[in-house]
Q: What sequence folds into this?
């Protein structure tokens, strides 16, 4: 572990701002690099405004795409297929307002959990192999 004066400037800046990374030096270096690239070092209003404008532009594009997709006629067939076993209007409301959103949220949560686990697994694997590579090279140099 490096003493604070030996840490790269980006790590000191992140530490001073209250950002802590528990994934090791490599992840902290990568995160510090992207944080500095995306927000400036120190954070600048221009970088924030550029990101904000890009975000708003992307949200407008997404909303337009969704509006176009909703206009297709096959959604009536999908609705009829899903609600075909239901004849009671009250049960139909329960299905539409509770049951379908429940399954959608469960599928999204499962996806998030799986991808975050895989991302963490990749980070630990890369750090493990980098540390083994460093140890093997240092053993050849000093051994």
A:
């Amino acid at each position: 572990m490096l003493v604070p004066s030996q840490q790269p400037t980006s790590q000191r800046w992140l530490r001073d701002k209250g950002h802590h990374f528990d994934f090791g030096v490599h992840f902290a270096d990568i995160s510090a690099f992207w944080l500095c690239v995306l927000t400036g070092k120190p954070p600048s209003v221009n970088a924030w405004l550029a990101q904000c404008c890009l975000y708003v532009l992307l949200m407008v594009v997404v909303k337009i795409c969704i509006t176009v997709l909703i206009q297709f006629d096959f959604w009536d067939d999908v609705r009829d297929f899903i609600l075909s076993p239901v004849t009671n209007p009250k049960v139909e409301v329960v299905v539409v307002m509770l049951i379908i959103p429940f399954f959608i949220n469960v599928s999204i949560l499962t996806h998030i959990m799986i991808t975050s686990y895989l991302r963490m697994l990749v980070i630990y694997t890369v750090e493990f192999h980098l540390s083994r590579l460093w140890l093997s090279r240092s053993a050849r140099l000093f051994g």
